[in-house]
Design goal:
By secondary structure, the chain is mainly α. The chain is built from 3 helices and no strands. It has a domain at 22-68. The two termini are 39 Å apart.
């Protein structure tokens, strides 16, 4: 899956409170929250893939036993 991010860089220097906000507590906490949500989605996807692999292995175990013996 290819995800293309297109973001424009905004000039925030015209807003006096933008830089202190971006460097301060609320913005940092917001970024941490967004990162944790992203990691959660990655974790859920990894668990789904693992479940699918385990299902395939268990469903084909009898066929593999015949081949290996």
């Amino acid at each position: 899956m290819l995800i293309r991010l297109t973001m424009q860089i905004s000039d925030l220097t015209k807003y006096n409170s933008a830089i202190p906000f971006a460097c301060g507590g609320p913005a940092v906490e917001f970024i941490k929250m967004m990162i944790l949500q992203g990691l959660h989605v990655i974790h859920l996807h990894a668990e789904t893939v693992t479940d699918n692999i385990q299902f395939l292995i268990k469903s084909r175990a009898k066929n593999l036993a015949v081949i290996l013996n």
